[in-house]
Every structure is written in structure tokens, then in C-alpha cells.
Amino acid sequence: MTATAARPPLRLAAGGAGAHLDWALWGLLAVLALFAVSAVADLVAVLGVLAQLPVPPIDRLDAGQTAGTVETVLCYGHLFAVGAWFVLAGRLLRRLGADPNPVLRTTPIVLWRIGIAATVAAAVALPRATVFEPGAFATRLHWMIPILVARLALTALVMAALFGVRRRVHEVLLASGVPPRPDPRRDTGPSLRAAPLTPFPARPVTVADDAWWAEVAARASAAGEPLPLLESWGATRRRWLLVAPSADLAALRATLLPGATVTLFGPPGDGPGALGLIEEPGSGTLRFDRIDTPEQLAAWHRRAADAPRSARYALDDPAALSATVPN
Q1: Per-residue DSSP letters for 1-70?
Q2: Are 312 and 228 within 8 A, CB to CB?
Q3: What is the pLDDT along the chain (327 residues), one digit of tens a residue?
Q4: Helix 58-95 and helix 19-52, axial crossing angle in degrees, nearest 10
Q5: Per-residue b/e over 100-114, b at no fewer than 16 CB within 10 Å?
Q6: Preceding omega of 54 cis (within 30 degrees of 0)
Q7: Which of 50, 151, 225, 236 has its CA 20 to 30 A from that of 249?
Q8: What string of DSSP letters covers 257-301?
Q9: How many CB atoms are closer than 10 A to CB 165?
Q10: What crossing angle do the helices spanning 19-52 and 134-174 adopt, rounded to 10°?
């Protein structure tokens, strides 16, 4: 039996492009849970008032009014939150060159949209009545019960559907060809990461514009194999990417941080301050290591022994092509 390669999670897939979408999803689920709680509270309040008709206590009426107001506000609020999440997902998919409609428009989502629109229309169409009109008031409360039950069922449906959409978005990110972002929580070994990174040698300041990327594409095509691209930002954050001869550079550029420095290296080299690249088995994550001492070099060799891909690049490589990602 062969082992299955571990897939990077959504927050790391395609260079971490899905991280914000994933966090937004958990926030959306919290809003949906809060709305469900308010709908249950409103349903309990409606049943309590019905049980006390024709003369319900004032405190029960007040509680019912409060529960109904909260439920109505959260009903419209959760519709806004769901819509905002789908807008965010659509923008992410377009950045990666994918059509968002087949990914986001699933049957459960369509059913939820129809159902929630029907409950909103039904609530608006309810007959207006006060407690001083017992018959009409009871009719209004009886109709509110199926509306609230339907909203609870629809909330459960959309929560399940969102996980299905999340999975489909994840598949698109994995198929984008953009390498995953390394997991900062993974144990990377103190022997290689004990010392902070020193700055790179000064290079001419160039903006990574279309002309610069055209040069990147030309170099990758001439090499006939993937070339390493290092994204650097801050004092210690580094990330390797691979630029294949036929790479979708628009999708790759969409994952870069504004203001970061990107450096395209050529053939592997060595020397003081070498930069190590290791493709970790299973996940395919490209690991960055700064190698300054013989001990760090020995540790790097041990880690690279079983790696599908490994190489070292000279920090002061004069042929390296560097630029700054525009803001």
C-alpha cells in the first residue's frame, strides 16, 4: 500500500491565498450560530405568548417583542455576512484565473437562497395585529412558527453547504500550481533557525512590473526547468516559490505580499551565506533555510537526504534577478 501525500490546508494552499477566506468562514459560522440561537429564543417566546392568549402577561409580551426584534436584525445581518463571504471567495477565485460560478453555485446554496427569500417574503406578508385583536394576533403568531422553523432548518443547510463550498475552493487552490505557504507552526529544527537572518546584500531597486516578470518567464523558458523564486519580507520571513517554464505568472503574482522583495535565482551555488531549498516529502512544502555555519550545513544535508528536491543558492549570486512587489 502506498502512502498518500499530505495536502496543505486551505490556509496554506496556493501560497496562503485562502487564509483570509478560511478565517472569514469561521466568523460567518459564528454569526449563523448566533442567528440560530435568536430564532430558537423567538420561537420559544411565540409559543409562550400563544399559550397565554387571550390575555398574556405584559412581561411575556415584552420578552417576545425583544426576541422578535433581535431575530429580525440577525436575520438580515446573517444574509449580509453570507453575501460578503461569497464576494470574498469569488474575488479569490478570479485572482487565480478560475471561474467562481461553478465552484460557488451549488445545489444546497441555491435551495438556501430560495428558502430564505421565501421566509423573508412570508414574514413581510404577515397580517398586522396587536394583542387587543386576539383573533388576528393569534393568526399572526401561528404563522410565525413555521417561518422560524424553516429559518432554523435553512441555517443548518447553509452551514453544511458552506463546508462543501470551502472544499471546492480548496481544490481550486491546490490545482492552481502555486506552491503552498510553509507552515510556521511546523518544527523546523533549532540548528538551522537559531540565529536571526541577516540582511541580503544590496541590489538595484527594481519594481516587479510586467517587464520584470517577462524577464522571469524568459529565464525559466531558457532553463527548461523550474527556477527558484524567493519572496522576502520583514526581518525573518522567507518563502520559496518555483517558476516553471509554463507557469501561470498572473496566479503566482496574486499570492505575493505588497512591498516584498522577490529574487529569481539561476543554477544552484554555494558559499558564505547560502540559501537552502528543500521540498518536504508528502506535503510538497518548499522549506527555506539560511546556512551560515558548518553545523547548519550538516543539519541541512541530513534533512535534504530524503527530499524529492533540494538545492543551495549563493546569497550574493550576481546573476540573481531581484525586484520589489508594488503596493
Answers
A1: -PPPPPPPPTTTHHHHTTHHHHHHHHHHHHHHHHHHHHHHHHHHHHHHHHHHTTS--HHHHHHHHHHHHH
A2: no
A3: 333 345 778 887 777 778 888 999 999 999 999 999 999 999 998 888 888 777 777 777 787 888 889 999 999 999 999 999 999 999 888 877 788 899 999 999 999 999 999 999 998 888 776 666 777 778 888 889 999 999 999 999 999 999 999 999 988 888 766 667 666 555 444 344 434 444 454 455 688 899 999 999 999 889 888 899 998 876 667 888 889 888 888 888 888 888 888 999 887 876 556 888 988 887 778 888 888 788 788 888 888 888 888 889 887 777 888 898 887
A4: 160
A5: beebbeeeebeebee
A6: yes
A7: 236
A8: PTT-EEEE--S---STTEEEEEE-TTT--EEEEEE-SHHHHHHHH
A9: 20
A10: 160
- Phi, psi (degrees; rounded to nearest 5) at 22: -65, -45
Question: How many C-beta atoms surround the C-beta of residue 184 within 10 A?
Answer: 8
- Which residues 6+ apart lie within 8 Å of 234 measured at CB? none
pTM score, two decimals?
0.58
What is the chain's Cα-based Rg?
28
What are the cell numbers at 270? 554555494
What distance in Å separates the CA atoms of residue 241 and residue 182, rounded to the nearest whole number?
Answer: 10
Residue 131: what are its φ and ψ, rounded to 5°? Answer: -65, -20
Show the cell assigned to 265.
535565482
Q: Which amino acid is at 61?
A: L
C-alpha cell at 83: 453575501
Look up residue 111 and give its amino acid.
Answer: L
Determine the Cα–Cα distance for residues 167 and 163; give it in Å rounded to an integer: 6
